[in-house]
């Protein structure tokens, strides 16, 4: 299993060189607009005095950490502003390894490929636990997999690629399991603003010294290239994570942090609601057409990906290329996310042409 | 020995709370203006379409890598755009450890404190080699220190804190030593635009599979907070470094990269020359006043720091605080950089009040 990025580029490039029009449903890069205040914030920053162009505090601009802390109802000292969710997860997983309490990472299958990639880079072993057909965790299997060798349990809710949103009981039990086995629970909540079920529960609502929550503004504000995310650590774990952050990156980019701060301060709830509405419309249209194509699929409770399975057409790279050439639709092969969904193809709803794509699929498979 | 950053903040905070006016010569944050094109580039980027706000390639915007590669006369495939010089050095040092060719880092004393901090975080041992009084490397001592256990030799030219610029023969011998002992030479050239001696020689002019060169736009363009640096790896080492960069940070901040690209494309040599002229004036004024104060000091050949020693007044944190309170000048204690210069105090010339500070010192010590 390879990481997301190279495979992702491989599919994108194949689609670009295709001899026909292709609807790109490969990448999870938002195609909608960031908040207006974000662009204004960046303009304002561009005219700031030279002193504002120098290092922010290593753990992020004070006002930004305070805005985050207030929203997440934690003390600002527990917040580290990171280079997107990517660094936030790296810091959390590295912090778990540093505790000398084992070396095994328990991940789900299917999985966001960066997690096993990071685990291996950190010298950890990886154990992947298949989820239920509906994307929910198989808690019997999780209980069996989590042992005293477990250093960290990594979950993503709302989930990429399954679209599942884990209920409160799941998060509670994961925290209990982490505590019982002296492991850490890492809850990656990067899609927290994309919950369509109303069931999303942040792991931060369950007090524990054994869980770390990460998130990012990449998807929230449609700015994957700005690299502003954050991690919320327990007090007992945060100092060493701050040291690593400083030794690896010194600090994050201040223009990006200033723009995100401006967006946080001036963006009302209607921005987030409008984006969700637009995504709901895309989900409905895409799923209706999948019905017409006779495909199995999971309707996402959160995030913005749909996993679909077409009879006799497993989610291999070869079949993904065939779909690009013959149907004009590009998705990600399910085998990129582990073995549990290698029959499936992931379609990202980051295009206004989601319905058109689904119609092409319906026609191709009819 | 602690890292630069916390000690640095400690001194800054002490100076801020002093009961008098203090000239801040603690931090190496430029106080001069970035190129006009940089601000314009950021404004232009702020109005770009949403697609331009998404992930750049993991190793950096293609045009930016090409600009860097052309200036450094290397193939763009060898360039990774990083989160400032900090991540560039981290990637280089981590790459050295991954080769399983030892575990010892050979550093200079005095040293930029992030190097030993990174080495320790990576699980390496640290061996520090005192430099000559004039800041040049003691090559006999270096030859003795570099063994088959050496994984990486880290040097910084022009040097912080000594101001030394290493001649070509030094760089050539360091490359030879690295090759002979299957180690890597890491040359951190972050001050490459601040050579007043005319003797600066980039390690890139010496072809070898055993040297990595890092640099950054933090000082070059007076934007330490933008976090845009780069590393140039040998072909044989670059792929694994790219993977680590991706797994730790995914990619760098695109607003920062876009602004730096605009500055590179539109900034003529007079910008760099003007900054150097202004620094030369500060160096002369400061050193003249140190003469009047009867201090030992090293006149920098490059970078923008002056190490000074006042008779019977060693560079301890306590004495640095005394200078803040009684002379109104804040510097960095020499003990922050190792033991070889613990009698000295480092003054950063990042203030228009350098001459005034020197006059205060002259008066205090007269």
Gist of the model:
Chains A, B: Its cofactor is pyridoxal 5'-phosphate. The structure is a homodimer of 366-residue chains. Chain A is an alpha/beta fold.
Q: Can you tell me about this structure?
A:
The structure is a homodimer of 366-residue chains. The model of chain A has no long low-confidence stretch (mean pLDDT 95). Chain A folds into 2 domains: 4-34 and 270-365, Aspartate Aminotransferase, domain 1 (Alpha-Beta Complex); 55-266, 3-Layer(aba) Sandwich (Aspartate Aminotransferase, domain 2), CATH 3.40.640. The first copy, chain A, has helices at residues 4-16, 36-46, 62-72, 84-98, 114-121, 139-145, 168-180, 217-220, 235-249, 254-266, 269-292, 317-327, 354-365; strands at residues 23-24, 79-82, 104-109, 125-130, 150-156, 184-188, 211-216, 229-232, 296-297, 305-309, 329-330, 332-333, 345-348. Chain A is of the alpha/beta class. At the A-B interface, helix 2, helix 4, helix 5, helix 9 and helix 10 of A face helix 2, helix 4, helix 5, helix 9 and helix 10 of B. Chains A, B: It comes from Salinigranum rubrum. Chains A, B: It holds the Pfam family Aminotran_1_2.
Q: What's the CATH first level of the largest domain in chain A?
A: Alpha Beta
Q: Any low-confidence stretches of chain A, pLDDT <50, length ≥5? A: none
Strand content of chain A: 15-25%
Question: Order of SSEs of chain A, N→C?
Answer: HEHHEHEHEHEHEEHEHHHEEHEEEH
CATH topology of the largest domain in chain A: Aspartate Aminotransferase, domain 2
Q: How many DSSP E strands of chain A? A: 13
Structural class of chain A: alpha/beta
The end-to-end distance of chain A, rounded to whole angstroms, is: 32 Å
Please bin the fraction of helical residues of chain A. 40-55%
Q: Give the CATH architecture of the largest domain in chain A.
A: 3-Layer(aba) Sandwich
Largest interface, and how many residues on either side? A-B, 53 and 53 residues
Largest sheet of chain A: 7 strands, mixed
Q: Please give the radius of gyration of chain A in angstroms.
A: 20 Å
Shape of chain A: globular
How many domains of chain A? The number is 2
Oligomer: homodimer
Average pLDDT rating of chain A = 95
What strand line-up does the widest sheet of chain A have? 2-8-7-6-5-3-4
Number of helices of chain A: 13
CATH superfamily of the largest domain in chain A: Type I PLP-dependent aspartate aminotransferase-like (Major domain)
């Amino acid at each position: 299993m390879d990481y997301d990025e190279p495979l992702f580029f491989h599919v994108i490039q194949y689609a670009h060189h295709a001899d026909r029009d292709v609807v790109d449903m490969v990448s999870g890069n938002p195609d909608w607009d960031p908040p207006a205040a974000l662009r204004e914030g960046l303009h304002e920053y561009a005219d700031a005095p030279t002193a504002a162009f120098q290092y922010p505090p290593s753990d992020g601009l004070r006002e930004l950490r305070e805005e985050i802390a207030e929203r997440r109802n934690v003390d600002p000292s527990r917040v580290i502003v990171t280079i997107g969710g990517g660094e936030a997860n790296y810091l959390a997983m590295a912090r778990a390894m540093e505790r000398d309490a084992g070396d095994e990472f328990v991940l789900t299958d299917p999985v966001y490929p960066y997690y096993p990639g990071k685990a291996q880079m950190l010298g950890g072993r990886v154990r992947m636990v298949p989820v239920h057909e509906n994307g929910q965790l198989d808690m019997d299997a999780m209980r069996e997999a989590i042992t005293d060798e477990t250093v960290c349990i990594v979950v993503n809710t709302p989930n990429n690629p399954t679209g599942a949103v884990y209920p409160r009981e799941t998060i509670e039990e994961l925290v209990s399991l982490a505590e019982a086995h002296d492991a850490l629970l890492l809850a990656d909540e990067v899609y927290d603003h994309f919950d369509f079920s109303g069931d999303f529960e942040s792991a931060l609502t369950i007090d524990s010294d054994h869980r770390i929550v990460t998130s990012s503004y990449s998807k929230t504000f449609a700015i994957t290239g700005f690299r502003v995310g954050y991690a919320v650590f327990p007090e007992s774990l945060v100092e060493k994570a701050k040291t690593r952050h400083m030794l690896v990156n010194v600090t994050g980019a201040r223009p990006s942090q200033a723009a995100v701060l401006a967006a946080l301060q001036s963006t009302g709830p209607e921005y987030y609601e409008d984006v969700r509405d637009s995504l709901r419309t895309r989900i409905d249209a895409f799923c209706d057409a999948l019905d017409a194509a006779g495909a199995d699929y999971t309707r996402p409770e959160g995030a913005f990906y749909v996993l679909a399975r077409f009879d006799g057409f497993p989610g291999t790279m070869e079949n993904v290329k065939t779909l690009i050439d013959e149907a004009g639709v590009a998705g990600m092969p399910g085998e990129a996310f582990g073995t549990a969904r290698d029959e499936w193809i992931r379609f990202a709803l980051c295009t206004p042409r989601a319905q058109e794509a689904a119609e092409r699929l319906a026609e191709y498979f009819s």
